[in-house]
């Protein structure tokens, strides 16, 4: 089964496409491993100036695959790998992003979303919390917005995502996302590899420090929540497409 499409290359930009639309590109253990290997290959390839991460289907990433979840350490390692990669990683979003998918998005250096995109941190509705994905998210997004969306699980659009700092730019209602991204990619092509790596190191220092200080604690919190009775009810209700027992 294809989880990641073969990479494509265009003038120094390598595009990696999440290609598991049947499960809405959910982060299964195999997908996490495949994406990590592809990023390693990009890091080692001198012809790659930057990486674009995009998706097939109408969902960028639905979060963790509840039927084949990745090891929490592997998911944390993937997000940290994106942050620490010596080459910029640019997210190109034209669909929905949910739960752990926002962690993937938050780890990217630059991100653009089209008018069809929507976002939601739905963990609280499953008896969980956005624990490990807080490491790339909380240093980047507006604190008051984080509080609202962490607690309520409300859905919001690309314009709101840009306002709160989750994404870099939102394409307009009639604007093609690739047109919106063109100046960004051209700018990356004009930068030197050393200049990009050194500049990225400056802007990611706080995020990497958060990973190094809090990863183990947040992994433990996440594991405890997943093992709880409320989370079992929440995930079962989600898979059965019914309301959980606590919904009022």
UniProtKB/TrEMBL annotation:
Alphabetized Pfam families for the sequence: ECH_1
Species in which this protein is naturally found: Streptomyces pulveraceus
Lineage: Bacteria, Bacillati, Actinomycetota, Actinomycetes, Kitasatosporales
Family: Belongs to the enoyl-CoA hydratase/isomerase family.
Name recorded for this polypeptide: Enoyl-CoA hydratase family protein
Highest rank taxon of the organism: Bacteria
């Amino acid at each position: 089964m294809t989880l990641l499409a073969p990479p494509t290359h265009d003038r120094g930009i390598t595009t990696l496409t999440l290609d598991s639309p049947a499960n809405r590109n959910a982060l299964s253990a195999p997908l996490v491993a495949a994406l990590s290997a592809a990023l390693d290959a990009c890091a080692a390839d001198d012809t790659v100036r930057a990486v674009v991460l995009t998706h097939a289907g109408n969902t960028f990433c639905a979060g963790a695959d509840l039927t084949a979840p990745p090891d929490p350490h592997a998911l944390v390692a993937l997000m940290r790998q994106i942050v620490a990669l010596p080459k910029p990683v640019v997210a190109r979003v034209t669909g929905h992003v949910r739960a752990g998918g926002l962690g993937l998005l938050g780890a990217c250096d630059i991100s653009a979303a089209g008018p069809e995109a929507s976002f939601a941190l739905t963990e609280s509705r499953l008896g969980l919390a956005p624990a490990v994905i807080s490491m790339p998210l909380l240093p980047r997004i507006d604190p008051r917005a984080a509080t609202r969306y962490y607690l309520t699980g409300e859905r919001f659009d690309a314009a709101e995502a840009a306002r709160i700092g989750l994404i870099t730019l939102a394409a307009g209602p009639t604007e093609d996302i690739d047109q919106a991204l063109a100046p960004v990619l051209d700018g990356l092509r004009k930068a030197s590899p050393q200049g990009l790596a050194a500049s990225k190191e400056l802007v990611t220092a706080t995020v990497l420090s958060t990973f190094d200080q809090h990863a183990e604690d947040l992994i433990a919190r996440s594991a405890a929540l997943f093992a709880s009775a409320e989370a079992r009810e929440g995930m079962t209700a989600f898979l059965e497409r019914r309301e959980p027992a606590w919904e009022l």
